[in-house]
Amino acid sequence: MSNLSHLVFTSAQIRAIERFHAKEHDGHCFDLMEEAGKSVFNNIKSHCPDFHDVWVFAGSGNNGGDGYIVAALLLDAGISHRVFALNKPHPGSEAATACEYFLSLGGKIEHALPEINDGCPDVIVDALLGTGIKSAPRAPIDEWILFINRTRAYTVAVDVPSGVNADTGTVEGDCVKADLTVCMLALKPGLLTGDAVDYTGEVTVESLGVDVSVFHGKLTDLDEEIHLPLLRRSYEDIIDDLPHREKTANKGDCGKVLIIGGAKGMGGAARICAQGALRAGAGLVKVATDSVNINALNAGLPEAMTVDFNDEEALSKALSWADVTAIGPGLSQNEKARKLLELALSFDGPVVLDADALNLIATGEFSLSDKIIMTPHPGEAARLLGLTADEVNYDRIKSAVMLQRKYGGIVLLKGAGSVICDGKRITIVQEGSPAMASGGMGDLLTGIIAAFLGQDLTPKQATVAAACVHGRAGELAGRDGGIVGTLATDLTSYVRALVNGRN
C-alpha cells in the first residue's frame, strides 16, 4: 500500500497545499484540475470497462471544473455523454477556464434535469459539491442529488460525494451515494469515519503529481482547532507490529492479563473479553469476577483462571501477578464496582478501560494516569464529555481529541472508522463491518488490546493493531457467515488467524 493511502489531510490543509503549488505555477492550479479530470476519466475506464454513456453533473466551483475536464475527455474520445449544470462557474475562475475549454470543443451544457424515463447512463460523475460544504445541500442542489441516486447508475464522486463534510464525515441532508470516490491529492478524514462511510463506496487516491508527504504534520499555522497529524491504518499496515514468538517462548513470556468484570447477570462480557485476550496470544489470562460466574467460566473457558473479585486478598494478589489489567466488561456501576475501579487505577502497569469503567469515570470521581487506554463507543464518549451521542458523532475526530485532552492516555473512539488519539497523532482505522453491530464486540476488543500490551507492544501499537485485527475479523466473519446474526464469539477464530498474519 502506498504512503499516499496512509496520509490524511483536512480540507484546510489541502487548500494550503494548493496555495503552495500555485506560488510555483504562476499563481494558478489549473494543471491540478486537468490532472484531476484525467484521473476520474481513467478510473471510469478501469472500473467500468464496458461503459458507453456518461452523465456529468457539474457545480460552479472547482469540483465542477474537474467535471468539465472529464466531459472534455469524453467528448474527445467520442464517448456518449451529457453535462448538466445549474450555473456556470464564476468568471475568471479555473473552473470557468475548464468550462470554456469544454464548450470550445463543441460541448453542450444542459441546465435542467432530464426525465428519469429518458433512460439512464452507465456512469454518472458527481462533480456538484466539493470539500467546502459544511451544511446540508440547499435547493435545488438537493433535488439534483436525489435524481443522481434514483438513476442507480454507477456513480463516481469527484473528491468527495456531494453532501459529505470532508473533514468530519457528517451527512446533514441529501447526499450522493457513490460507488467510487476519486480523492484528489490526499485522503480527507471525512471519507474514513462517520456517516460518510455509507456514501463513499470504494475510495481511491490520486496524487495529481504532488508529493503531499512533505507537508504532513507541518501545516500547523492554519486556523484549525486540531493540528495533530492524521493517519489511516488497516490490517495490512500493522502486520509487522503483531507479536512474534521465539521458539523458546513459554506462557510466562507472552503476557499475564487480568480482566476485572462480570457482575451478577453479566458474566458473559468478562468471558468474551478473556476469549479475546487468549485468541490474541496472551500467555495467561485471569478473570476477576463475581463468584456466581466462576463455575460457568471454568467450564466454558477452562484456559482462563478465575478469582472472586469480592475476595480482596485474592484480588490484590492477582493485581500483583498481572502485567496488564483490563476493567469494565459487565462491571456494573454499583459501590462494589467503584471500589474495583479505584483498585485497578492504582495498578502500576497499563490499564484498559471499557464499558462500565468508563461510565464510572464520567462521574469525575477518579484520578487517572497516562497509562490508561480508554475504548468508548459514542454513548460512553458522550457521558465522558458531557455531550450527546449525536454531538460526539457530528465530529468524531474532534471528540476523540477532546477525550484525550481531558483524560490523558490513549483514546479509541469506536464506531465506523474508529478514531485513536494519543495526544501526538490521530489514527483512523478503516476496518470493520455492520456484522459487528451486536453485543460483546467491545468486550472482545478490550481483550485483544490487553493481550497485545502483555506481549510488549507499545500502548499506541497495541491499540491500533487491536482495532485493525478486531475490525478485519468482523469483516471476515460477516463475509463468511452473513452480516446479520454475527456474534462476538464468531470472531475469535478469525482473530487467531489474523494475529498469526493470515488474512
UniProtKB/TrEMBL annotation:
NCBIfam families linked: yjeF_cterm, yjeF_nterm
Family statement: Belongs to the NnrD/CARKD family. In the N-terminal section; belongs to the NnrE/AIBP family.
Domain of life: Bacteria
PROSITE patterns: YJEF_C_3 (PS51383), YJEF_N (PS51385)
Listed PANTHER family: ATP-DEPENDENT (S)-NAD(P)H-HYDRATE DEHYDRATASE, ATP-DEPENDENT (S)-NAD(P)H-HYDRATE DEHYDRATASE FAMILY MEMBER
Protein's recorded name: Bifunctional NAD(P)H-hydrate repair enzyme
Residue span(s) of domain YjeF C-terminal: 234-502
EC code(s) of this entry: 4.2.1.136, 5.1.99.6
Subunit and interaction comment: Homotetramer.
The organism of origin for this protein: Succinatimonas hippei (strain DSM 22608 / JCM 16073 / KCTC 15190 / YIT 12066)
Keyword Metal-binding: yes
Binding of AMP, residues: K414, G415, A416, G417, S418, G442
Essential cofactor(s): K(+); Mg(2+)
Keyword line: ATP-binding, Isomerase, Lyase, Metal-binding, Multifunctional enzyme, NAD, NADP, Nucleotide-binding, Potassium
Keyword Nucleotidyltransferase: no
Job description of the protein: Catalyzes the epimerization of the S- and R-forms of NAD(P)HX, a damaged form of NAD(P)H that is a result of enzymatic or heat-dependent hydration. This is a prerequisite for the S-specific NAD(P)H-hydrate dehydratase to allow the repair of both epimers of NAD(P)HX. Catalyzes the dehydration of the S-form of NAD(P)HX at the expense of ADP, which is converted to AMP. Together with NAD(P)HX epimerase, which catalyzes the epimerization of the S- and R-forms, the enzyme allows the repair of both epimers of NAD(P)HX, a damaged form of NAD(P)H that is a result of enzymatic or heat-dependent hydration.
Residues that hold K(+) according to the record: N63, D126, S162
Residue span, YjeF N-terminal domain: 14-216
One GO MF term attached to the UniProt entry: ADP-dependent NAD(P)H-hydrate dehydratase activity
GO biological process: one example: metabolite repair
Chain residues that bind (6S)-NADPHX: 62-66, 130-136, 159, 269, 330, 377, 443
HAMAP family: NADHX_dehydratase (MF_01965), NADHX_epimerase (MF_01966)
Gene behind this protein: nnrE
CDD domains: YXKO-related
Cofactor note: Binds 1 potassium ion per subunit.
Catalytic activity: (6S)-NADPHX + ADP = AMP + phosphate + NADPH + H(+); (6R)-NADHX = (6S)-NADHX; (6S)-NADHX + ADP = AMP + phosphate + NADH + H(+); (6R)-NADPHX = (6S)-NADPHX
